[in-house]
Design a protein that fits this description.
There is one protein chain. The chain is mainly beta and 107 residues long. It has a single domain (6-97), classed as Metal Binding Protein, Guanine Nucleotide Exchange Factor, Chain A (Beta Complex). The protein is 4% helix and 26% strand. The protein is built from one helix and seven strands, in the order E-H-E-E-E-E-E-E. The chain is globular, with a radius of gyration of 13 Å. 16% of the residues are buried.
Length: 107
């Protein structure tokens, strides 16, 4: 996986969905993301606008990655799913305001 900004892109979101899963997410361009194994065990979840695509392991339920709604040319990846990464080592991780997501605002 390619992380152009390294772990500087690490964030948490306070939307109703993200705050319940509690993941620290890092961003990568779609072209920088490659799933090495386990694709046959992933389950897709979509809601709301159906723009974002959230993948979970069908065996254990862990959120692994998602195609972002705010920037569909990027993937958000659960940092805890990356080999050798402990999300606690990334603290402090900033929060983004997903409750007031820009895509939810009416023009």
């Amino acid at each position: 996986m390619e992380l152009p900004d390294g772990f500087a892109s690490a964030r948490r979101c306070d939307c109703s969905f993200c705050r319940r899963r509690g993941a620290v997410v890092v961003s990568t361009p779609l072209t920088g993301f490659r799933l090495l194994s386990g694709q046959d065990r992933l389950t897709l979840y979509q809601f709301g606008t159906n723009t974002a695509q959230h993948w979970f392991c069908a065996t254990c339920g862990i959120y692994t990655h998602h195609r972002r709604r705010s920037n569909p040319s990027q993937m958000g990846v659960n940092a805890a799913c990356l080999d050798g990464v402990n999300p606690r080592d990334l603290d402090p991780v900033p929060w983004v305001d997903g409750v007031n997501h820009p895509s939810d605002r009416k023009p």
